[in-house]
Specification:
With about 425 residues, the protein is an alpha/beta fold. It has 13 helices and 15 strands. The mean pLDDT is about 95.
Length: about 425
């Protein structure tokens, strides 16, 4: 038996003052000190190719000059004022997001995180529909607040059974597991729609369905294109709203679309879209987009002390401009396609890889025991460590089993960097 390595002084201090449930990656947790482009450095001077971007948050690049300049200039003028005063950067970013949203007569409310954005969306939906019933997807993750935990369909991230909402979980977000996995895409969608109709016959009319177009923490699982459009047709007949959680899928990361919901657009846009993470490129920006009648349904006063701060809005504006002007959605499609192709070629030679799935620069590698279909979190942890030792940072996820490696580099990833990362993943996986 190997002797555990001693903790670093910083790790000891972390453990002494922060919660036990604030988990850290790696046997020897990493202190990242600085970054540039698609690379970061640790406190020991080691350089890593970053394929996780602070959990898909450093969406464009580390130390992007355009964002750094915007933040610095705004901080030199004023850092904070609150939503009680007119805020030019907030208005300008809201105008751009509303125009890009696809939602008619859209209104935008800014928050500081995806959790807070989803919490706000649930508040709006339940108030608008006068119902505390909510539909959510199995294996989902929507945040760590009391209400968002209560609609999270992933046991590993739902620490309490208490809830302000009555949530019912729907089939469909995990294509290759569950009772409908053996069906082809059309039959799978039809079965999920039939199940939804049956479910609605047993409940009071829900306020909304909340769904991630690609499940992030759940391991980058997704339904066939068009599933949520088929759901929307059933839900719209009953007045049930559709909330698309775009915290991880927005801003072109999926390559094929600017928003994840656009793979399910046959029956129109969602009623509400939530976003966060990448739009600020590391700054704390989240938000909700909704039709005016929904956004304006609250009959009380409200503010956001830190949501929409001048500094974070300046970062968001600069980052969004960079994404659009440099066609990073197209880059995600092209370079992400190459990366997925390379990962699938490796998977064909490694028995422990059950599946490689993804879209654009979102790739999930699911690991199992060789010759079985049983999830293997131990192997996922081993590959995470092996990749780090070879100079690559990736993430983990995948339901309560945490057996999926999550790969989501910044959207400026080059072909050479994709090839380098794929080669490291090849060696880390084959070492199993």
């Amino acid at each position: 038996m190997t002797t555990p390595r001693p903790r670093s002084p910083l790790h000891e201090r972390h453990s002494a003052v922060l919660p036990d449930w604030l988990s850290l990656y790696y046997e020897r947790p990493l202190e990242i000190t600085h970054g540039e482009g698609r690379h970061v450095w640790d406190a020991d001077g080691n350089r890593y190719l970053d394929f996780f971007g602070g959990i898909l948050t450093t969406m464009t690049a580390h130390a992007l000059p355009e964002v750094t300049k915007a933040v610095t200039e705004q901080a030199g003028r004023i850092i904070h004022s609150s939503t009680l005063y007119l805020n030019r950067p907030m208005v300008e970013l809201a105008e751009r997001i509303a125009a890009l949203s696809g939602i008619p007569d859209a209104r935008v409310f800014f928050t500081t995180s995806g959790t807070e954005a989803n919490d706000t969306a649930l508040l709006l939906a339940t108030a608008f529909r006068a119902s505390n019933q909510v539909l959510a997807m199995r294996n989902s993750y929507h945040g760590r607040s009391f209400s968002t935990v209560s609609v999270t369909g992933n046991r590993g991230w739902s620490p309490t059974g208490y809830s302000p909402l009555q949530t019912t979980y729907v089939h469909g977000a995990v294509r290759d597991r569950g009772p409908f996995a053996a069906l082809d895409d059309a039959a799978f969608t039809a079965a999920c729609v039939a199940d939804l109709k049956d479910l609605l016959g047993h409940t009071r009319t829900p306020a909304a369905l909340i769904a991630e177009p690609v499940q992030g923490v759940g391991g980058f699982t997704m339904p066939p294109d068009g599933l949520y459009a088929a759901f929307r047709e059933v839900l719209a007949e009953r007045g049930v709203l559709w909330i698309s959680d775009e915290v991880q899928t927005g801003w072109g990361r999926t390559g094929d679309h600017f928003w994840g919901w656009q793979a399910h657009a046959d029956n129109g846009p969602p009623d509400i879209v939530t976003f966060a993470k990448g739009i600020g490129n590391g700054m704390s920006v989240g938000g909700v987009i909704a039709r005016a009648e929904i956004m304006n349904c609250l009959d009380t006063n409200s503010i956001s002390t830190f949501g929409g701060s001048p500094v974070t809005m300046a970062a968001g504006l600069a980052n969004l401009s960079y994404v659009l002007e440099h066609d990073l959605q197209g880059n995600a499609r092209r370079v992400g396609g190459l990366l997925l192709e390379r990962l699938r070629a490796t998977a064909a030679r490694v028995d422990a890889v059950r599946a490689v799935r993804g879209r654009g620069l979102m790739a999930g590698v699911e690991l199992v025991g060789p010759g079985t279909d049983e999830a293997s979190p131990e192997r996922a942890a081993a590959v995470l460590e092996a990749a780090r030792e070879r100079g690559l940072l990736i993430g983990k996820g995948g339901g309560h089993d945490t057996s999926v490696l999550r790969i989501a580099p910044p959207l400026t990833l080059t072909v050479a960097e994709a090839e380098e990362g794929a080669e490291i993943m090849d060696r880390a996986l084959r070492a199993l």
